């Protein structure tokens, strides 16, 4: 049976939950066409997070990898376009590490583009009534680190596989404690991801609609 | 039997739905203690909206009135503190009227404060995991008009009744079409309103916690 | 000779400066038509701030009073439409007082509207190339307190005088220390205020253009 | 004599001015240490903009290249960290072209990092009282295109030269016509750039302070 690997991250930054894992674990064993979801919870730790993800990829040899992460302050599900080869931590990770301007892979390419059909996935989510957008930056913390590590590995994979990173807003219960912060209910994110996963499975070549930013 | 009156507003500003009415109608006939919810859908029309609300108040003689409205662009459920005696419409209402700097009630007071226990209601919503806040302005469009009209009437009511206005964010399906706009799922808003209504029924005198704004 | 009274506030909230006073003191003795500017620096203290302002009004018997204050987080010069009869302090004032939901004037009206020709003043500022807008809330801290106290006093004045409150953004040097905060240079604010003061002096009855907010 | 090349862009998106060129032309012939500023106004056109910039680089063989651009909606001077190999235009350029997901250089690297000492430059601007920050995305429009084209060329330059891209906010006169938009006065941006240029000239190896984003 084919596998879709969906990962979330443990809580960080003094949060009790991480919406990315709350979402991912609800998709465990879910069927999409002839593929089934496997999940993995990643530590919020530079280095280790990418290692764990790659181990899961090696075990499952999935046809699709969606790594999820929390984006406090964003109001929409964000499909990341690009991961860059830099760690620059504004806050410490869960092991207390706070690298500054350090390459993720020494000598690696400056960036990798997501290999997901981003525009088709966003369009499917919006059609499903879920706020979604392409994002031009995954930041420079553990989320970007995970995405870069994943795409660096997949670039050398010897089976057909597509992967990328998706940021999700705070849960309502998190935003309740943050003045001004937007949020999204688990059920809304799940409805969006279901539509996005089907779009990813059914789209060979991405559609040509803009998802750009002027600045 | 005692009544809680909850009103919503019809869609406006080219929207297909108005979350305030989507929420209100799901509370129809709901029981809270020994009180039952009655609902009313108001037109998005200066003058008429307040008249319809007052008619419903006269018919039901409720102990609690919650007038709901849509606040596109806000990320939290907002309990309005004050309504001001002015109509200043940035867009036309649903009858094409666009008053500028016109008093709602000629010779009326400059403002009315909500008679709801706002701080207790916000605290209950946050405890229920729902993003909520006190808001210092209901704008100058039909929502503020409705709130002012309601409080002007209730100030003269000859039975014990408390009332006020609550703004709710876009639904996810609305925000999906608005770049950058935050949203809140119906189920999240409902969970918050249930907690807020119980707090309103159980709070005689509001609690002393800040809900202010520096500017 | 006629007088225009312009007041600023001392620094608060751990800031080294308050842009409202930096602006006001640069207008000291400036001529506008046959009127000259007098200034006054108010303490950021509930009660005392309004007392000092009223003392200055009594001394100068100005034809125009512009009370200025700092609005960290706002990007435009904001002409406040209304002051409400409530103190609700999110942070302590400079005497350590932090009132919650306390009327400014016990038994006073719920609100006072600015008696400035707001729309004409905003239009003049925008024509001068300065970002400006009508604001529907002055908050519930010392700025709103000052505005309410001023308008409560002016409502009983026995000479022709108009007054109101204007919020100004952080100075660039303040915003440099606040992630994401917008700012405005002193010279830009001054150019705007000069245009606004001339408009106030030359406008008997305000113009009819919208300055409203939908929510 | 040594040269610092500073470029701006012509107006686009229905604007009458572009702050990047208003700033750049005021720096024309300015001296910094033993170097003098040369300037160039670039068209807001995919392809052509990068060609013109590279021509100017070839002519001047500068030791430092600062390409400036307008970032409507941003409140701080933004030093861009990275340019990505994609054009995805949300609006047409000034020749009416609107590419979607098209590589800037077919077969080129996914991204280039700025070769400016970003952290030292931001620190110098903040010390000068000018709001500034590192930005993790230059968007996917002509600004990112220019930055990628510049860095692709400089990567092969046979003389010591550093370069990158800096986004500046709207001018106050532009923001006056955009509800909610922050702005920055020309004099403030100039003060910041002077400090940043001196820091760039005096910093061999960038300082280790965070300029990262969590998401």
TrEMBL record, chains A, B, C, D:
Coiled-coil positions: none
One of the record's GO molecular function terms: pyroglutamyl-peptidase activity
A Pfam entry, by short name: Peptidase_C15
Catalytic-site annotation from UniProt: 80, 143, 167
Signal peptide: none
Recorded catalytic activity of this chain's protein: Release of an N-terminal pyroglutamyl group from a polypeptide, the second amino acid generally not being Pro
Keywords assigned: Cytoplasm, Hydrolase, Protease, Thiol protease
GO cellular component: cytosol
Annotated compartments: Cytoplasm
Single GO biological process annotation from the record: proteolysis
Subunit structure as annotated in this protein's UniProt entry: Homotetramer.
Function summary: Removes 5-oxoproline from various penultimate amino acid residues except L-proline.
NCBIfam families linked to this entry: PRK13197.1, pyro_pdase
Family that this chain belongs to: Belongs to the peptidase C15 family.
Name under which the protein is recorded: Pyrrolidone-carboxylate peptidase
Lineage: Bacteria, Pseudomonadati, Pseudomonadota, Gammaproteobacteria, Enterobacterales
